[in-house]
Design goal:
Metallo-beta-lactamase, Chain A; 218 residues; 7-stranded mixed sheet; alpha/beta
């Protein structure tokens, strides 16, 4: 699942934060593999922490649909990598600044894969109640980034949060023809995204390119 970039963009510290933020947010792609949570990283007056949501388990032909099994084996096995299953770690970035407690994406929740959906427990381990989260900034609408937004009763888990979503993501997932144009094996992605966007519609603000979402975050 691809992960768009997020920049912490306070102009007075831009040269420092671009590199630091890119490193910190890249932790969400698996550099803190198997850890429940990483130690917080200070960025000026702000703090970044990475929490685990577990991991996914994907057939390799789902990740590399245009490659034959032979091509996949030739590519991966010389490096000691499994060629049948891809098990990426799912990590979520927590950002504290002033009175804001911000999550970048919310993990997969309980209904995607049994190996994922651990974020709430690790928030509790960090002493954080979901009602304390002030902002949720979505990068995109794939299940491992979005589906954790609802609780067991299909209500918004982060009930006090302002949700932020790129306008293009909102438009894509909610378009009338998206479901019909999506391959069969991924139609559940569309149905899941639409139901979750419907549930949080009253709390969503759209993000447009170059917009400072909250102070210091672009």
């Amino acid at each position: 699942m691809s992960r768009p970039s997020v920049l912490l963009a306070d102009p007075s510290r831009r040269s420092v934060l671009k590199g630091s933020a890119a490193l910190a947010l890249s932790l969400g792609t698996g550099l803190v593999a198997k850890a429940a949570q990483a130690n917080p990283v200070k960025l000026g007056n702000a703090e970044v922490q990475v929490l685990s949501d577990g991991n996914l388990s994907l057939p390799m032909n789902f990740v590399l649909p245009e490659q034959s099994p032979e091509e996949i084996r030739t590519l991966l096995e010389p490096h000691g990598l499994a060629s049948d299953t891809y098990a990426p770690d799912c990590n979520v970035t927590l950002y504290r600044t002033g009175d804001r407690l911000v999550l970048f994406d919310v993990g997969a929740g309980a209904n995607f894969q049994p190996s994922a959906g651990d974020l709430v427990g690790h928030l509790e381990d960090a002493g954080i109640d979901p009602t304390e989260v002030t902002d949720v900034i979505f990068t995109h609408g794939h299940p491992d980034h979005l589906w954790g937004v609802l609780d067991d009763f299909d209500d918004p888990l982060f009930s006090e949060a302002q949700y932020w979503l790129p306008q293009a993501e909102w438009d894509y997932w909610r378009a009338d023809d998206t479901l019909a144009n999506t391959p069969e094996e991924r139609k559940s992605f569309v149905v899941g995204a639409q139901s979750r966007f419907d549930a949080i519609a009253d709390q969503v603000e759209m993000i447009r390119p170059g917009m400072e979402v909250i102070s210091g975050v672009e």
